[in-house]
Write a structure and sequence with these properties.
Length: 579
């Protein structure tokens, strides 16, 4: 089981609870309250990973290395008693939460030292309770919640008290020490206290790039001896890392260099712990509580069906939880990857720009040039959809100049049809139908179809050549067209697999949004989750102004675009514009 599978189990449990809530009468307030509490626990589930260590050990550099970023400021002066957390956010920012106010204050990350250091906020005179750093990093989206405490060995007693007060909230600890000065008395004191807490401790020995091989072995041996004296056979594992070298390797995309830094091994261990010890236990306990709550449902066919569905879900999850833990999938190891976030469809963008550029000029011509007004009337005007696209640009004065010729023509045709000796219902209906413009007659439909055809071919050619760039956004209506003309089988597979992952991410964001709404935790929703409803619909249907019903009936079909790009069939190549 990986983190994605774990989330799918959470979403499935939430669906069971929603179904149960619909079956419980209003009078059973206790049962309804218990179901709401379970939904809230699912929505609030997070993994608190608390970092402790003395000043200058490299805690912030370590977080930057794991997150694949350099946005967290390093080299900070000694901290105040403010707890600094790192959680998921759609945009980089810091949300300051105060002790005596419900209003948060947002500041840029670069301003963080002004609020969490002794120099910027001596004695925490600003009254900040938590400085919450929000970053769009994949590991945070998947449930990790980093907590940076004021530190060990601080001369400020309030710092120590703040750290100790937060320890019960921890799911696991990372104690960061370093090769240049390993294991202070404060760190040994923490290990003694941690051995009694029952929580998992990961020991990170940082700055390995500053020590020779012999020095590393000597330091590790010393630390292992100290830990055995405290923990016995259950001593925490020691991870030797270089956080600064790991940051550099991730920025360069150098997998071999990253492996040497020790960070991938630490990441793998954190994920496995999250799945096998923390999250598996959480879901097992949730299943027990859900099962207990389902017993209170009134007897009905719907309740029986719901219990049967839950029984299958529960059995499948327990089988996975008892199986040997597998390796984390690659997309979860590469925590810094944002390639599969939903991106705007550039074909929709090209078509929208072509429509806008054309209509801005055309609305002036049909308002001021007599011959253009006659041609517009002869073609039957715009299709119904593009009539309102025109209205969004044109003035009332312009419309009153452009449309009389068309209305006069329609009036004359309808009078002739009505005056006919055999004006049957079918004949009148046919005359009315003929008065409607088709996509082939509409000037804007013609522009739209041509712009779409050209953009589809350009996009397909670029993808065939491997020139993907940073943006692979193609909404489903255009994905069909692009794939139909691509020549490279490998490029086609890559594009379709990419889009499948985008759809999966949107699905997860939608499910997280509904879960937090059900739990009355709207404030926990990220920007992606708040936008998931609109983005999900756009991903499957495209933008309204470029994908509408007349296009599907009268626009370029896959085979038409393919015929234009008839490279594979040996037909004549067409001239395509340069982007």
């Amino acid at each position: 089981m990986d983190l994605r599978t774990y989330e799918q189990h959470k979403f499935a449990l939430a669906e069971i609870l929603r179904g149960a809530s619909r079956l419980v009468p209003e009078a059973q307030r206790e049962t309804r309250s218990r179901l709401r509490e379970l939904i809230t626990r699912l929505a609030e589930d997070r993994f608190n990973l608390v970092l402790v260590g003395r000043f200058s050990r490299g805690k912030t550099s370590l977080m930057n290395a794991i997150l694949g970023t350099d946005r967290l400021p390093t080299g900070l002066a000694p901290l105040t008693s403010v707890i600094t957390t790192v959680t998921y956010g759609s945009n980089e920012q810091v949300a300051l939460k105060f002790r005596n106010s419900i209003m948060d204050q947002e500041v840029p990350i670069s301003a963080l030292p002004e609020y969490i250091t002794q120099a910027g906020n001596p004695g925490n005179v600003r009254g900040i309770r938590v400085a919450e750093v929000q970053l769009p990093a994949e590991i945070l989206r998947r449930g990790f919640y980093f907590v940076d405490t004021p530190g060990l060995g601080s001369v400020i007693r309030e710092n120590t008290l703040t750290t100790e007060a937060f320890l019960p909230e921890a799911d696991a600890f990372i104690l960061v020490t370093s090769y240049d000065s390993p294991l202070s008395e404060e760190e040994l004191r923490f290990f003694r206290a941690g051995s009694l807490s029952g929580r998992r401790i990961f020991v990170v020995l940082n700055k390995q790039d500053l020590a020779s091989t012999g020095q590393r072995e000597g330091v590790r041996t010393f630390i292992e001896q100290q830990l055995r004296g405290i923990f016995g056979a259950a001593s925490p594992k020691i991870f030797s890392v270089s956080s600064t070298e790991a940051q550099k390797a991730k920025r360069q995309g150098n997998i071999a260099a990253l492996k040497v830094t020790g960070i991938p091994e630490l990441e793998k261990e954190l994920v496995q712990f999250l799945l096998t010890e923390k999250q598996a236990h959480f879901l097992l306990r949730m299943c027990e509580r859900v099962q207990q709550s389902l017993q209170d449902l009134p007897v009905s066919a719907e309740a029986i069906k719901l219990k049967s569905h839950f029984a299958v879900l529960n059995a499948n999850f327990r089988a996975e939880a008892n199986a040997s833990p597998g390796q984390p999938s690659e997309d979860l190891v590469d925590f810094s990857s944002t390639e599969h976030c939903a991106q705007p469809c550039e074909i929709c963008g090209d078509v929208g720009k072509a429509i806008w550029d054309f209509i801005c000029k055309y609305q002036y011509r049909i308002a001021s040039v007599r011959d253009e007004q006659e041609r517009f009337a002869t073609r039957g005007g715009f299709c119904p959809f593009h009539t309102w696209e025109y209205q969004s640009v044109a003035s009332a004065y312009g419309s009153c100049n452009a449309y009389p010729a068309l209305l006069d023509r329609l009036s004359g045709e309808l009078r002739v049809a009505a005056a006919g000796a055999n004006a049957t219902q079918a004949m009148l209906a046919g005359a009315l139908l003929n008065s409607l413009p088709t996509p082939r007659d509409c000037p804007l439909c013609t522009v739209r179809e041509r712009a779409e055809r050209e953009s589809v071919i350009l996009t397909a050619n670029r993808l065939d050549r491997g020139e993907r760039g940073a943006n692979l956004g193609v909404y489903l209506p255009h994905l069909v067209l692009v794939v139909s003309v691509m020549q490279s089988a490998q490029a086609r597979r890559h594009l379709v697999e990419h889009q499948a992952t985008v759809f999966q991410r949107l699905s997860e964001d939608m499910r997280r949004f509904t879960l937090k709404q059900d739990a009355a935790r709207r404030y926990m929703a990220s920007g992606e989750e708040n936008a998931a409803a609109e983005q999900g619909l756009i991903a499957v249907a495209g933008l309204p102004r470029t994908n509408f019903l007349p296009r599907m009936r009268g626009g370029p079909r896959c085979e038409e675009v393919g015929a234009a790009q008839s490279v594979a069939s040996g037909g004549p190549a067409i001239s395509t514009p340069k982007r």
